[in-house]
Each structure stands twice: as C-alpha cells, then as structure tokens.
TrEMBL record:
Protein name stated in the entry: Dirigent protein
Organism whose genome encodes this protein: Punica granatum
Keywords: Apoplast, Secreted, Signal
Gene Ontology cellular component list: apoplast
Signal peptide boundaries: 1-17
Highest taxon, organism lineage: Eukaryota
Family matches, as Pfam families: Dirigent (PF03018)
Length: 191
C-alpha cells in the first residue's frame, strides 16, 4: 500500500472507532424525529443534586490556568484570569463518593471591582439514565456569596431543549490551596 492509502486507512479507523467510544448522540434523522414528536411531548421538571470538586493545586489539578492579563496580578479580583476545568462531579461532598459526571469548561475573572467569575461549562453526566447527556451553563458566579444562581441554557440527550437554573453553594473552600468543593442543585424544564 502507498503512504496515502495507509493514511486514509488510519483516518478511517479513527473515525470508525470514535462512535463506539462516544456513542452518546443519535443520528440526525432520529433527532429530527424527536422534534417532530415534540407537540405531543409533555414538559417535565427534573432536579439534580451533586458536588463539584475544583482542585487547583497538587499533583493532579482538575482546573489549570490558561491565560492572564499583564495586570491580573495587580487586580484585587484577579481580573483577566482564565482557567480550564475538567472537574469531577460526585453524589456526595466526599471526593471518593460515587462519580456522576464532569464539569468541563472555562471560568474566568470578569469583574474589576467585585469578584464575579464568568462560568461557561458543560455538565457531562455519566451515571444511569443521564449517561452521555449534557447540560450547558453560562452564568455569573460571585464565589463569595452564599448562593449563586446560574442559567442552564440548554442540553443534549435526555436533556434536549433544557432550560433552568443551577444554584451553587460552597461546601468547603481551602484558602491555602484554593481548592473548593461546591454543592450544586439544578432544576430544569425539559421533555
Ligand atoms: C456510560 O456509557 C458509556 C458508553 O457510552 C459506557 O462505556 C459506560 O459503561 C456507561 N456508564 C454507565 C454507568 O452506564
Ligand atoms: C488546605 O490546603 C493545604 C495546602 O494544600 C493543606 O495542607 C491542608 O491540609 C488543606 N486543608 C484542609 C482542611 O483540607
């Protein structure tokens, strides 16, 4: 075989292998079918409760700094700081409790005068009936307030067309390490 054929085979094998690993989305025809059935679908409310583990120090951080402005270090709110997270979600506050998914995305300091993070992330669920489904969050997170309310702007899988609210409450914040465990309660409308 020439080099091109080998390359084509490798690409083909990679593309073919992917669906078996990540078979979480339906084909577009099934998605269209789901939309056609919407008029007779009933809207329901689902509540989720889990803990989010943001580890920024140690050997295996789950959130890593990716950018900062030249002025970030001089800012009282670290304005301009950006971090990429892949934080585990568990049923309980104990990091070793049953995993239910990951929070993948970016948070950054978006407030100059008061600390408010821009949160843009996907909750990717891995447990039971929610396995493979996601919820998208786009909101403001003033982390030192008791409760922070962030919009759920959409979802996939069992959460298609979801909209709702995620409420975050810090369970533990280690001021030395910066690591945090945050309790999340999510309420959504979906079909
Ligand atoms: C979730 O789905 C993946 C594949 O899509 C599968 O490998 C995994 O075992 C499933 N997990 C659970 C808890 O069902
Ligand atoms: C907070 O973090 C520091 C530094 O990593 C660690 O030594 C300490 O044990 C942590 N405190 C708690 C209560 O986990």
């Amino acid at each position: 075989m020439d080099k091109l054929a080998v390359l084509a085979l490798i690409v083909f094998a990679a593309v073919m292998a992917l669906p078996f690993v990540w078979c979480t989305a339906d084909d577009p025809e099934k998605v269209a079918e789901w939309f056609r059935a919407l008029p007779s679908a009933k809207e329901k409310t689902t509540q989720l409760h889990f803990y989010f583990h943001d580890t920024v120090t140690g050997k295996n951080p789950t959130a890593v700094p990716i950018a900062r402005a030249p002025s970030t270090d001089k800012s009282p709110t670290m304005f301009g700081f950006l971090s990429m997270m892949d934080d585990p979600l568990t049923v309980g506050p104990d990091p070793n409790s049953e995993p239910v998914g990951r929070a993948q995305g970016i948070y950054g300091s978006a407030g100059q005068d008061s600390l408010g993070l821009l949160m843009t992330l996907n909750f990717m669920f891995t447990s039971k009936e929610y396995n493979g489904s996601t919820l998208s969050v786009l909101g403001r997170n003033p982390i030192f307030e008791t409760y922070r309310e962030m919009p759920i702007t959409g979802g996939t899988g069992v959460f298609r067309l979801a909209r709702g609210i995620a409420t975050a409450k810090t369970h533990v914040f280690n001021t030395t390490s910066g690591d945090a465990i945050v309790e999340y309660k999510v309420i959504i409308l979906h079909y």
